[in-house]
């Protein structure tokens, strides 16, 4: 029969696992916010502003793509963190992932500002 780890190690493993779960939930919250942004920009904004809908629909779809990306990468990240916890290895978030989401967020923000200014 295998020996159980000392209580301190077990507590540390539990805290690390729960931290990974909170991180996964943060990815979900971000995806839900992007989904709300997609609906707001793509569907509600053209009606409220009484403007041509197609640019807003395209921008809303871009926010929806962001939401999908957040869900996919968040699930992969959760898997990687749990694997790292089991193996005792470190699994940092890659700069590539950070750069892609940061660049995408900047692009969406700039396009949103341009669209808003164009309606003035």
UniProtKB/TrEMBL annotation:
DUF202 domain residues: 15-83
Record localization: Endomembrane system
Keyword Magnesium among UniProt keywords: no
Keywords: Membrane, Transmembrane, Transmembrane helix
Transmembrane annotation, as ranges: 24-42, 54-73, 93-118
Presence of keyword Cytoplasm: no
InterPro entries given in the database record: DUF202
Highest taxon of the lineage: Bacteria
Membrane topology per record: Multi-pass membrane protein
GO cellular component, one term: endomembrane system
Database matches in Pfam families: DUF202
Record-given protein name: Putative membrane protein
Organism name: Solirubrobacter pauli
